[in-house]
């Protein structure tokens, strides 16, 4: 059996194997040509710096043991282990607006009075400006729906479609939807016409339209650069240096700041693509959301040492500022959303199967439990895979 | 896992120095098995291509930090197979709400009933079981090496191999009958 199995596995071919190899090599080569090889000094700088850093830490530990206590006391003063008693069901939202919840069973819309509607068997959804429509994807299909689930139009492409994002222009003008067709970035008009490729090979990050600037779209490249493109002329407005490919690109509401969140780093850029700063992140779940009408933002920071997640407030200015702890809990925080009036922060607390609503202007916290079950998931499924992946809270008033 | 051959070390050194031809040699050496391994685990052509591509792009991004004394294959296969398992798990969750099955038919050409039976058998296994079968019988790692690649206890690998093979035999017997 073993030898026969070995031979049989070696004979099974994927579809289009040679073409796949040709496409992959073109992409790998293109990424390779854009990189800058390190010099010997650069390649060996890290071990030397690491050795020096270890030495300094050892010396500091010997002469300054109270340092650790100081860090501990600051953390203890602003975090709490006590979760509020949760409500068993999401009966109302604490602020006006509607939620679009991407759950494991598909997207759902939640009204302020707590009523919920499932949009259908789609995998991912995002709001149009003012929540008049929803862009949805499933496998090879992209569609625009009205909030009651009616399909206005749809199109199909050859690769897996995802990351559909509606441009943020006023509804009087025609909007556009940017989306990923495998690794190809495409744009289609809001009425489903004029679908066309914008870039052939891009990073896996969902694109992000720049607020307040007509038709400028940020996306990542395969080597982790962030590029801003004018979707009318298809010309690059600016492009950053390479880095880690982000999982999330998030604009501030005024379109003057852009955050690129990756597994290990968070980079902040100004409106001209200049890097303001970059901070390292521990491995673990993360997420980021801007506070309304502000360059301050909330970051999920996971601590592998304590298996806790913190919500931390920074600013996207020349200096990130001192971290301000907002909330802390054991386990993973999975999603963040700010209410349209800017007063409430929704936090998905995965391990507790809860949505937390934190009032940013006071210390008030409200919790709702049984989130997976309320969005059609099975109680027996692991929470890490069944808890909603993202939530957006629509819609802020126009700036 | 034995160390890399002289030829491979030379390709890696050349690619680190900026040689596209050395990179191409490395790519051509490793792409077919990486792509096929991803395909056998996820059973979706487009996804397998994305997964293998992404693994190579990750290799390019980390090329300067790569230790030439380590073999390239296991490092690449660890990324490919773990991503393939994650993808297949995510798809199985989505399939709960999907109307059509997501898997494709394997192309076994005119290779006869054994390959057809293996393809059918593989399709009936979970992604985790497919992964250990593929690592053992396509990529030819030992159970200890598979345990290291997948970050699993050795006993788990052995039991997945045993159950996977039993299941394959059952399906193939049924197919041939």
Q: What is the number of domains of chain B? A: 2
What is the distance, rounded to the nearest whole angstrom, between the alpha carbons of the first and last residues of chain B? 40 Å
The largest sheet of chain A, given as strand count, sense and whether it forms a barrel, is: 4 strands, antiparallel
User: If you compute it from the alpha carbons, what radius of gyration of chain A comes out, rounded to the nearest whole angstrom?
Assistant: 23 Å
Stretches with pLDDT under 50, minimum 5 residues of chain B: 95-105, 108-113
| CATH architecture label of the largest domain in chain B | Orthogonal Bundle
Q: Quote the beta fraction of chain B.
A: under 5%
CATH superfamily of the largest domain in chain B: RNA polymerase sigma factor, region 2, helix turn helix motif
Report the strand count of chain B.
Answer: 0
The CATH superfamily of the largest domain in chain A appears as: YVTN repeat-like/Quinoprotein amine dehydrogenase
SSE pattern of chain B, N- to C-terminal: HHHHHHHH
Q: Any idea what the CATH architecture of the largest domain in chain A is?
A: 7 Propeller
Radius of gyration of chain B: 17 Å
- Large-scale geometry of chain A: globular
- Give the helix proportion of chain B (percent range): over 70%
Would you tell me which CATH topology of the largest domain in chain A applies?
Methylamine Dehydrogenase, Chain H
Straight-line distance between termini of chain A: 68 Å
Count of helical stretches of chain A: 6
| Spatial ordering of strands, largest sheet of chain A | 3-2-1-28
Strand content of chain A: 35-45%
In short:
The complex is a heterodimer of chains A (about 400) and B (about 180). Chain A is α+β, with helices and mostly antiparallel strands.
Characterise the protein shown here:
The complex is a heterodimer of chains A (399) and B (177). By secondary structure, chain A is an alpha+beta fold. Chain A has 2 domains: 2-75, no CATH class; 83-394, 7 Propeller (Methylamine Dehydrogenase, Chain H). Chain A contains 6 helices and 28 strands. Chain A has helices at 2-11, 17-34, 40-63, 66-78, 371-374, 383-386; strands spanning 98-103, 106-110, 116-118, 124-127, 134-138, 141-145, 151-156, 161-166, 176-181, 184-189, 196-199, 208-209, 216-220, 226-230, 236-239, 248-251, 257-261, 265-270, 275-280, 287-290, 296-303, 308-315, 324-330, 333-338, 344-349, 354-359, 365-368, 390-394. In chain A, the strands form 7 sheets. In chain A, strands 3-2-1-28 form a 4-stranded antiparallel beta sheet, with no helix packed on it. In chain A, β25 (344-349) and β26 form a beta hairpin. With 177 residues, chain B is mainly alpha-helical. Chain B has 2 domains: 1-104, Rna Polymerase Sigma Factor, Chain: A (Orthogonal Bundle); 106-177, Winged helix-like DNA-binding domain superfamily/Winged helix DNA-binding domain (Arc Repressor Mutant, subunit A). Helix content of chain B is 72%, strand content 0%. Residues 95-105 and 108-113 of chain B have low confidence and may be disordered. Classes of the chains: A alpha+beta (399), B mainly alpha (177).
